């Protein structure tokens, strides 16, 4: 095959950057280290794809195409070399000249030649049944919610169902994301533009969710469409299409643990607090709590005017300070888990809900909730003898 392709350098660079999350250095087949380029002379477009078999990313860019053959052709470019090259090239346009198994890349006076993969057995495109309902919503809202929720997902690959993000379409026209590792849980509800006839859900593997975050746009005007068929999900916006395989496992029934049987636990006894003040107090306490007998153990105690936050180690010392947050029950948390939740809160005055020293501690703002299981009883600084209920266990009604 011989073809000449002319496109904008910025278009090509952006497209290649979006494809790179699906390129893995540990790919089991050499073909997966390549970007597939399909030439479409009818539409004057180049269709580019990458895959690691778990994720497939596709996009298209406009190009001036000159073919010396009558039928559309495709070729495979080594992804990392091409990405590194395009990133440092200058000029407004890039000319790609394909000649057999060689690719000439030219911008201005700069010319480089790349060897193309001789074989053409690139994995076929993912497919999905026609007529599946889709969810339309702001890509910015979805990306923000996913970034906040994903921090609670388990990184333990032996707990497969927790190594994921739960995505649930609610009947009232809302999308709920949730993630848990059994010791903390994060969930957020976002609204979308059309109501669904019935609830549906799927589990997005953690690796698939992380790669999706790398390519989702920050453009507030960008609309995201989501479809799922039980085995894979499709996220599309603009010219981008992101496919991800789904988990088939059962997710824990966690709702009662936060909302209770009546669904109103978040409304009772929630206290506002200054996010920055609590975050800095926990940061200072955690420095000493790292070497505590129970690692990262930070204590929270009620005082006459607020809440005392402390961390202590017999070897390194102690941090203790008081902030304005009226609580009546002592509790203790893993300082790192608490900091992760506090870091994604946006409101300067979110809420804290606590119903018992051995009950989950809940931080919330709007439709975002972050829950942490207690580590110890702050009262008398003793480890809890009655183990708290894990998020993925059957919750006990309050």
The major beta sheet can be summarized as: 8 strands, antiparallel
The helix content, as a percent range, equals 10-25%
The rounded Rg comes to 26 Å
Give the CATH level 1 class of the largest domain: Alpha Beta
CATH architecture of the largest domain: Roll
Please report the distance between the alpha carbons of the first and last residues.
Answer: 70 Å
Main β-sheet, spatial strand arrangement = 6-2-3-4-17-16-15-10
- Tally of DSSP helical segments: 7
Low-pLDDT sequence parts:
377-389, 393-398
- The CATH homologous superfamily of the largest domain: DNA Polymerase III, subunit A, domain 2
Q: Helix- and strand-based class?
A: alpha+beta
Index terms:
398 residues, alpha+beta, DNA Polymerase III, Chain A, domain 2, 3 domains, 8-stranded antiparallel beta sheet, 7 helices, 27 strands, 18% helix, 38% strand, elongated, disordered C terminus, DNA polymerase III subunit beta
Description:
Its EC number is 2.7.7.7. Belongs to the beta sliding clamp family. It comes from Candidatus Desulfolinea nitratireducens. Residues 5-123 form the DNA polymerase III beta sliding clamp N-terminal domain. It is found in: Cytoplasm. This protein has helices at 9-19, 79-88, 139-149, 206-215, 255-259, 275-289, 335-344, and strands at 2-8, 34-40, 45-51, 55-62, 64-67, 74-78, 93-99, 102-107, 110-115, 135-138, 164-170, 174-180, 184-191, 200-205, 223-228, 232-237, 240-245, 271-272, 297-302, 307-313, 317-323, 331-334, 351-353, 361-365, 368-372, 376-377, 382-383. Helix 1 runs antiparallel to helix 2 and helix 6 runs antiparallel to helix 7 (335-344). The N and C termini lie far apart (70 Å). It is elongated, with a radius of gyration of 26 Å. With 398 residues, the protein is α+β, with helices and mostly antiparallel strands. It is built from seven helices and 27 strands. The chain folds into three domains: 2-115, DNA Polymerase III, Chain A, domain 2 (Roll); 135-251, Roll (DNA Polymerase III, Chain A, domain 2); 266-383, Roll (DNA Polymerase III, Chain A, domain 2), CATH 3.10.150. The strands form five sheets. The protein has an eight-stranded antiparallel β-sheet with strand order 6-2-3-4-17-16-15-10. The model is unreliable at 377-389 and 393-398 (pLDDT under 50). The longest helix is centred in the last third of the chain and has 15 residues, at 275-289.
């Amino acid at each position: 095959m011989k073809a000449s392709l002319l496109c904008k350098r910025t278009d090509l660079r952006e497209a290649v950057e979006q494809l790179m999350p699906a390129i893995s250095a540990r790919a089991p087949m050499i073909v997966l280290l390549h970007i597939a380029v399909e030439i479409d002379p009818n539409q004057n477009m180049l269709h580019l794809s990458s895959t690691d078999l778990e994720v497939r990313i596709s996009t298209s860019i406009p190009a001036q195409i000159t073919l010396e053959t009558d039928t559309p052709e495709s070729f495979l470019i080594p992804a990392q070399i091409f990405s590194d090259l395009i990133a440092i090239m200058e000029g407004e346009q890039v000319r790609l000249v394909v000649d057999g198994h060689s690719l000439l890349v030219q911008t201005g006076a700069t010319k480089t030649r790349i060897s193309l993969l001789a074989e053409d057995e690139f994995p076929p495109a993912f497919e999905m049944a026609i007529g599946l309902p889709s969810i339309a919503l702001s890509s910015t809202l979805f990306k923000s919610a996913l970034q906040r929720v994903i921090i609670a997902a388990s990184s333990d690959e032996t707990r497969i169902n927790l190594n994921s993000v739960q995505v649930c379409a609610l009947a009232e026209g809302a999308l709920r994301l949730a993630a848990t590792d059994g010791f903390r849980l994060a969930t957020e509800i976002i609204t979308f533009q059309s109501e669904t006839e019935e609830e549906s859900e799927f589990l997005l593997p953690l690796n698939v969710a992380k790669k999706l975050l790398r390519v989702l746009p920050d453009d507030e005007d960008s609309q995201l469409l989501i479809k799922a068929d039980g085995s894979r999900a499709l996220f599309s916006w603009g010219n981008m299409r992101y496919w991800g395989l789904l988990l088939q496992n059962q997710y824990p029934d966690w709702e009662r643990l936060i909302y209770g049987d009546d669904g109103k636990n978040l409304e009772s006894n929630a206290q506002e607090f200054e996010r920055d003040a609590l975050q800095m107090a926990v940061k200072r306490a955690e420095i000493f709590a790292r070497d505590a007998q129970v690692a990262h153990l930070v204590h929270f105690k009620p005082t006459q005017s607020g809440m005392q936050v402390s961390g202590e180690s017999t070897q390194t010392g102690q941090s203790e300070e008081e902030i304005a947050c009226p609580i009546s029950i002592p509790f203790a948390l893993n300082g790192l888990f608490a900091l992760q939740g506090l870091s994604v809160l946006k409101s300067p005055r979110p809420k804290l809900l606590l119903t018992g020293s051995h009950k989950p501690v809940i931080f919330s703002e709007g439709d975002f909730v972050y829950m942490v299981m207690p580590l110890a009883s702050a009262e008398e600084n003793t480890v809890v003898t009655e183990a708290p209920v894990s998020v993925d266990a059957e919750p006990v009604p309050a």
